[in-house]
Amino acid sequence: MSVPEHAEQSPRSMTSRVILSTPDIDRALSRIAHEILESNKGSRGLVLLGIARRGYPLAQRLAAKLEQIAPDFHAQQSTGQLDITMYRDDLRRHPARTPQPTVIPNSGIDGRTLVLVDDVLFSGRTIRAALDALVDVGRPNAVRLAVLVDRGHRELPIRADHVGKNLPTSSHEKVRVLLRESDPQPRVRGHEDCVIIDSPVVSDDDVARAPGTAGKRPRV
C-alpha cells in the first residue's frame, strides 16, 4: 500500500509504506476492547490511562468501544491521561520535551484494574517510565498494557497484554502512528488514521560495503 497523499514526508533516504489504515485501526481497537472485557470478566473496576501523547486518544477510543459493548462502563468517568516526561531515562539526551497534564478519573485508580494504553511498544522504556509515574498517582489492583503496534526489539522485560498488530521490524526502521486528534494535517480518505513504517533505502554502495560481500559477484 502506498503512503497516503499529504502524509508526513520521510527523508530521501527512506521509503514509506502504510501498514494500518483507518478501518484497520478501528478493527484492531474493537478487538482489543473485547479482549479487555474478556480478561477482566466484564467492565467492573476498569480504568484506562492513555500515555501522552498518542496513547490518550487511543484510550478514549477504546473507552467509547467498551461503553458500546458494556453499557455499565462509563467512558468519560473511567478514562484519563498519564504524562511520563519527568520519569523518562533519556531526558538528558532529549531535554526539550513538553510535559502534558496527567488527568486521573475522579474515581481514582486505587484498587482498580488499570489498562495503560500506548501507540507503539518498542524498547519498553516508555512503559517502565509509566509504571514509575503510576506510583505517584495511586495503587491499582492490577496493571495491564494495551498497544496498537508491537514492533519488537525489547530492551526491558515488558510484554503487552493486548496488541493491535505485531509488526516485525528492523532496528533501522521507524514506525509512525498518525491520528486525527494528535496529527491533524490533511490526509486522504481512509488514512485519517494510519500506521506508517519508514525503511532505509539500500543502495548498491551499501551492498558493496556490507561485510562479507567484497569480491562477490551479484547473482544473475
From TrEMBL:
Catalytic activity: UMP + diphosphate = 5-phospho-alpha-D-ribose 1-diphosphate + uracil
Matching PANTHER family: BIFUNCTIONAL PROTEIN PYRR
Coiled-coil intervals: none
Protein name: Bifunctional protein PyrR
Enzyme class: transferase
Phosphoribosyltransferase domain location: 19-163
Function: Regulates the transcription of the pyrimidine nucleotide (pyr) operon in response to exogenous pyrimidines.
Listed EC numbers: 2.4.2.9
Source organism, top-level taxon: Bacteria
SUPFAM superfamilies (UniProt xref): PRTase-like
Span(s) of short sequence motif PRPP-binding: 114-126
Protein keywords: Glycosyltransferase, Transcription, Transcription regulation, Transferase
Organism, scientific name: Kocuria marina subsp. indica
UniProt GO molecular function: uracil phosphoribosyltransferase activity
HAMAP family xref list: PyrR (MF_01219)
GO biological process: regulation of DNA-templated transcription
Family: Belongs to the purine/pyrimidine phosphoribosyltransferase family. PyrR subfamily.
One Pfam family it belongs to: Pribosyltran
